[in-house]
């Protein structure tokens, strides 16, 4: 492995750094974007119980907000519920937008790595080819084996760049789709809470007043 790194030249170093960063982003985002962490399935039922029993005070609302992105959306809506459906929906829409921005964290960097890595590899190959032909010009024609060996070493960076770029691009697309699905679920849950407020299923007036006290 070390010999391969050396044969690729100095451009193998940034390619290696890109691979480490890409792997770290993929692991961190795959953990963070678990559906159970973003949109807990039992959260709506838990909010329903607290509101119906009148137990959703300021402390419970803070705990709800810090638990998950869906909790933050619900907390934003509940805090505005006493003002009516429209302000409640506006607050939850803003919270969904903020949650979407947080969920997309680092994905731009992953996309940049997927685009830059093959270009670094191509640059390394071009530099290597220039060195090969410069050596041939200075030392004569040389043997076919020497020429093939020099070209082979020059192509190492291209292979390394593609090895980093292909999985990075695949994970970038997959994680973006995951974020889109999670944001859509947040919007659906927000609409569900707003509908429940409109039909008077929860004691929003008491809960929101308690949170504002």
Write up this protein.
The protein has 213 residues and is mostly helical. It has one domain (2-212). It is 84% helix and 0% strand. It contains eleven helices and no strands. The protein has helices spanning 2-8, 12-32, 35-38, 43-53, 58-67, 69-79, 85-103, 107-139, 144-154, 156-198, 204-212. Helix 5 runs antiparallel to helix 6 (69-79). The chain is rod-shaped. Mean pLDDT is 83; it is low at 205-213.
Proportion of helical residues: over 70%
What percentage of the residues does DSSP assign to strands (E)?
Answer: under 5%
* SSE string: HHHHHHHHHHH
- Unreliable segments (pLDDT under 50, ≥5 consecutive)? 205-213
Taking the sheet with the most strands, its summary is: none
Per the principal axes of the C-alpha atoms, what is the gross shape?
rod-shaped
- Number of spatially distinct domains: 1
Beta-strand segment tally:
0
- Average pLDDT for all residues: 83
* Distance N to C terminus: 64 Å
Q: Structural class given helices, strands, pairing?
A: mainly alpha
Radius of gyration: 27 Å
In DSSP terms (H or I, runs of 4 or more residues), the helix count works out at 11
